[in-house]
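TA notes, week 10

Several of you asked for a full example with nothing omitted. So below is the full record: structure tokens for the whole chain, then the designed sequence directly under it. When grading your own attempts, check the secondary structure regions first.
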């Protein structure tokens, strides 16, 4: 029970035999806002943000900053929260740029990614962003053709050829076969192109994968990237970003959550030592966490609509699934949960939780020890803050859930629940 409860937001407690987050009764939240429902705990978000800032201040002797990876989950409330911590926003494409800009992010707060940016994406980046991370040589040539003045700073995305250890190939991005970034030779060709065309080349970026726990594979990639920085001959202020991807524990078998300090310490030491060996000035170190900032802050609430007991197999059918959380269907992500009422009950059967959609892969949790589940029960799924709502769909006409901001007894809707009218507005 303790290990499972430790997956939940920091403010979680059991009171009157029911789950509470941020002093809010989850049963009452489900009755007020309906289910499926996503909850975000401000205390947990703030704690993770402070851990990153504290670790950077402790271990890296030069300028450093955090860029929140919007792909994990982005809405206006999250943008405003990120700005309170002086974070920049990593946006992919014109849609995410628009959310950040409308929510109050200034040009200096917005950094733009994308493996195949459209002309609209680039024009939006030129208008609203201070940094564009260039993925390929074709993109670099288009930037020269499209922009007339006020071009943002350019960073080059490097493909280091080294992966981190994740639970599925789809969450690895740094290996040689990846679609992302440029090889050593392409990076040097891009740097020459920037120099010949007076383009403001200011940094190097790479990303090796998502939801990893061991930072050691970052070290050879950092060395390779610093070799390129030496060849490019960065001398004035320059920026170095080894991406993000630091993990979170989703299941009690994976607990505890990996320590942010361990991740930052390893990166900082490698950059400092690597620059000293190459006589490179220390760069402004930029980290791009998404999941490790927001995953633990999120809880998804579902209601059980039916239970099927077939010998040893127990199916609890809930009112959400792959339309609001496709991670199991995409790459077999593993989750845990607790019942909202009587969460301390004895777990005497193994239950699989599946959604209402017309796919056999519409499964959320498989064979989890649980108490006797009945129709109408509420279940709370922890570590639901990242890569769930941001990847949600309208499959089978699903209407995406509401999201609620929880802050010490206050519950504020930050995303309203979609309606059938929303679907018809586009038809």
């Amino acid at each position: 029970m303790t290990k499972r409860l430790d997956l939940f937001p920091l403010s979680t407690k059991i009171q009157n035999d029911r789950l509470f987050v941020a002093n809010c009764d989850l049963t009452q939240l489900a009755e007020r806002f309906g289910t499926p429902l996503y909850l975000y705990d401000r205390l947990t978000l703030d704690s993770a943000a402070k851990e990153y800032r504290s670790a950077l201040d402790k271990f890296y002797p030069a300028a450093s900053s955090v860029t929140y990876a919007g792909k994990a989950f982005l809405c206006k409330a999250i943008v405003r929260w990120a700005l309170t911590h002086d974070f920049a926003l990593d946006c992919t494409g014109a849609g995410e740029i628009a959310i950040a800009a409308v929510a109050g992010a200034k040009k200096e707060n917005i950094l733009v990614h994308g493996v195949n940016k459209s002309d609209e994406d680039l024009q939006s980046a030129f208008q609203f962003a201070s940094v564009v991370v260039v993925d390929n040589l074709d993109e670099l040539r288009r930037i020269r053709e499209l922009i007339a003045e006020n071009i943002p700073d350019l960073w080059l995305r490097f493909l280091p050829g080294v992966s981190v250890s994740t639970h599925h190939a789809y969450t690895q991005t740094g290996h040689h076969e990846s679609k992302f970034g440029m090889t050593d030779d392409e990076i040097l060709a891009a740097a020459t192109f920037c120099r010949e065309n007076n383009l403001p080349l200011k940094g190097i970026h790479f990303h090796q994968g998502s939801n990893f726990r061991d930072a050691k594979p970052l070290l050879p990639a950092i060395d390779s990237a610093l070799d390129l920085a030496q060849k490019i001959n960065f001398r004035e202020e320059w920026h170095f970003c080894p991406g993000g991807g630091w993990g979170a524990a989703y299941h009690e078998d994976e607990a505890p959550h990996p320590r942010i300090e361990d991740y930052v310490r390893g990166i900082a030491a490698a950059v400092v030592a690597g620059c000293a060996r190459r006589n490179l000035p220390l760069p402004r170190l930029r980290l791009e966490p998404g999941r490790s900032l927001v995953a633990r802050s999120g809880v998804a609430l579902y209601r059980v609509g039916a239970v099927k007991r077939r010998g040893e197999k127990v199916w609890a059918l809930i009112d959400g699934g792959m339309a609001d959380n496709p991670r199991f269907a995409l790459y077999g992500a593993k989750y845990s949960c607790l019942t909202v009422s009587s969460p301390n009950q004895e777990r005497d059967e193994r239950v699989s939780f599946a959604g209402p959609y017309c796919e056999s892969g519409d499964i959320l949790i498989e064979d989890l020890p649980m108490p006797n589940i009945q129709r109408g029960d509420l279940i709370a799924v922890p570590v639901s803050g990242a890569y769930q709502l941001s990847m949600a769909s309208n499959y089978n006409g699903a209407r995406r859930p509401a999201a609620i901001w929880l802050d010490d007894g206050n519950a504020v809707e930050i995303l309203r629940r979609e309606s059938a009218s929303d679907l018809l507005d586009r038809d």
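The first helix runs from residue 2 to 5. Use that as a sanity check on your answer.
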